[in-house]
Structure formats: structure tokens, C-alpha cells
Write a structure and sequence with these properties.
The chain is 77% helix and 0% strand. By secondary structure, the protein is an all-alpha fold. Helix 4 packs antiparallel against helix 5, helix 7 packs antiparallel against helix 9 and helix 10 packs antiparallel against helix 14. The protein is globular.
């Protein structure tokens, strides 16, 4: 496996990104220490679950900055507001999607994150052509988040599942709109590139979180065919091998191959947009290396699945284990990169 591309990118802007984190936590601290503590704990929990690798969502404004050479201080100012919104999406993921018990402090802290993020981003685009884009993106992301939650446990069509997934991720257009409003010449690219990522982000999340989604009965696009009662029975009876039983089923029924093929095409579209834009040598852009490396990993996984999926069930146990080792290694790498 290659060195982690998101970590490499993070290292390029480490001081700036850490400064953004500290600035937001300081703002929360100024209100009340309880808010800062709750939000820090949530973020650190998410980081720990990903081996302390930086999340792709947090890196987004710095990816745009790297691609179009946006002013550093301007990017930082927008990033503080976006980081608040991004943490709010983690809050929703934790307490809306998975319906975990929530403390009053965390509920109120989530409200404050939404206020800081959305209000400040809206101020940046006010009076510009991007005001309507941001307003529409925020409205649609909330609407589709609601629909996604309502339909989590139902076996909707793949087209409908994709519609909910794409719609709820439109929240990232709030950041893109602010960046576009602050850029002198790359506005169209910022919006097009962001739109190219909406479904990719969801597919990446579905691939890396499929076991948790299954146990929470969150039937994503990847888990569209996973309502088989026998599979559920196997998983409830399994112990250490439960992940592998489910992974085997995703290989056998072709779901993982289908999703990685679609994701590979989506990432290819994003890479093409970068290649059409770039005024620099692409090899010098860690943002470009991030997407190329991620696309290569997805493509390699898809090729493996395309070759092995049809015969997997007929293979002897030891050969199945070899394939599972390879697939699991790719998924772990993708998770750490996104």
C-alpha cells in the first residue's frame, strides 16, 4: 500500500489546520467550557476511530486552496466556519443516524456549532450570486437528511437511496459557495468540483462503515441487497468473524463491485476537472496526489472484485481468506484516506 495521501496533504497545511481547530474551540470556550469539552470529545472520538488520520471533510477548504492557490488567511477564515459546520455533521451522524443517547450539553453545543458555521458562511456570500446556491444547499441538505433518516430501515430503490445521499451531502456546497464568493477567477471550477464529490463522499462512507451501518439497520446503497434473514442470523451468531461474513456477502452479491465501479467513475470525473484547471505541475499539488492515489486504490479494489466476485463462492476456504485479506486491506486504506 502507498503512504497515506490524506496524511501527506494534512502535513502540507498542518499548522493552518491546527490553528483553525484551536480557533473554533476557543470560540466555544468563550461561551462556556462545557461546549468546548463536548465538541472536542466528539472530534477526538472520531479521530481515534480513524487512527488519528485527518478526515477528508475537514480538509476540503484546504484542498480547494491548494488547487486554485487561494489566499491562506482567507481560506483560514472560511475554514473556521466550515469546521463548525463539519463538526455539526459529525454530531448529526452520531445522534441522528445512530440515535445514541444525548446529553443536554452536547445538544446545546450542536446548536452553537450550527449557529457559528451557517451564520458566518451566509455572511460571506450575502449579496453575491452564491447566496442562493448556499441557501438552497442548506435547505436541501436538511430535507434529504430527514428523508434519509426516515428511510434508513427500508429497502428503497438504489436511485432513491442515491438521491437522499447526494442531497444530504449538499451541505458542503455552503463551504464551496463561500470559497467561490471569495475567489477572483475560479468560481465555476469550485462549484463543479464540489458537485462532483457529493455522491463520492457518501460511497466512501458506505464502504468504510458498512458493518456499523448493517448492525444499525441503515440500508445504504451498498447494503441495498442485505435484507436476507439468514445473513442476519449468521452475523448474530458470529463473533470475531462477523465482519468477514458480511464482507463475503457483499462480494458474492456484487454490491461491493457495483459501488466501487460507480465510485471509480465519480473520482475519475473529479480528477478530470482538476487536470483541466491546473495552471501548475500536477505532481506538485498534494491535493491532486490525494485524489489520484484514492482513485487508484478504488480502481485496484474494483479490478480485484471484478475478477474474483463471480467465482468467490466456489473457491476453497483458504483462497477465500486470501481474497478477503486483500479486500479488507484496501478498505482499511480507503478509510484512513477519507
Amino acid at each position: 500500500m502507498q503512504s497515506n495521501p490524506s496524511l501527506r496533504f494534512f502535513n502540507t497545511f498542518e499548522n493552518e489546520i491546527l490553528s483553525v481547530r484551536n480557533e473554533l474551540f476557543h470560540q466555544l470556550e468563550q461561551m462556556t467550557p462545557e461546549f468546548s469539552v463536548e465538541v472536542r470529545n466528539l472530534f477526538e472520538y472520531k479521530l481515534k476511530n480513524n487512527d488519528n488520520k485527518p478526515p477528508l471533510g475537514e480538509l476540503f477548504p484546504w484542498i480547494i486552496k491548494d488547487l486554485i492557490n487561494l489566499d491562506t488567511q482567507l481560506t483560514k477564515n472560511i475554514s473556521v466556519s466550515w469546521f463548525a459546520v463539519y463538526l455539526y455533521t459529525l454530531f448529526l451522524d452520531e445522534y441522528v443516524d445512530y440515535k445514541k443517547p444525548i446529553k443536554s450539553e452536547m445538544l446545546l453545543a450542536g446548536s452553537v456549532l450550527a449557529k457559528i458555521g451557517f451564520m458566518n458562511l451566509s455572511k460571506i456570500v450575502k449579496g453575491t450570486e452564491y447566496e442562493a446556491i448556499v441557501d438552497e444547499a442548506l435547505n436541501e441538505s436538511v430535507l434529504y437528511q430527514l428523508r434519509d433518516v426516515q428511510k434508513q430501515k427500508t429497502n428503497e430503490s438504489i436511485i432513491e437511496k442515491e438521491e437522499y445521499s447526494l442531497g444530504k451531502n449538499k451541505v458542503i456546497l455552503a463551504c464551496a459557495g463561500a470559497l467561490a464568493a471569495s475567489s477572483s477567477k475560479h468560481q465555476e471550477f469550485i462549484i463543479k468540483f464540489t458537485n462532483s464529490l457529493l455522491l463520492s463522499l457518501q460511497y466512501l462512507d458506505d464502504i468504510t462503515d458498512f458493518e456499523e451501518d448493517f448492525y444499525n439497520e441503515n440500508y445504504t446503497v451498498l447494503l441495498h441487497n442485505m435484507t436476507d434473514i439468514k445473513t442476519k442470523f449468521l452475523l448474530t451468531k458470529a463473533s470475531k468473524s462477523s465482519y468477514r461474513i458480511l464482507l463475503s456477502q457483499l462480494i458474492i452479491n456484487g454490491s461491493l463491485e457495483r459501488v466501487t465501479a460507480k465510485l471509480n467513475q465519480l473520482l475519475s470525473n473529479s480528477v478530470i476537472l482538476i487536470e483541466q484547471l491546473s495552471e501548475k505541475r500536477l505532481e506538485s499539488l498534494n491535493s491532486y496526489i490525494l485524489f489520484i492515489t484514492l482513485k487508484h486504490s478504488i480502481n485496484t479494489l474494483n479490478n480485484l472484485l471484478n475478477h474474483e466476485a463471480k467465482i468467490f463462492q466456489e473457491l476453497p476456504k483458504h483462497k477465500q481468506e486470501i481474497i478477503l485479506d486483500k479486500v479488507e486491506q484496501h478498505i482499511k486504506y480507503i478509510a484512513q484516506s477519507t
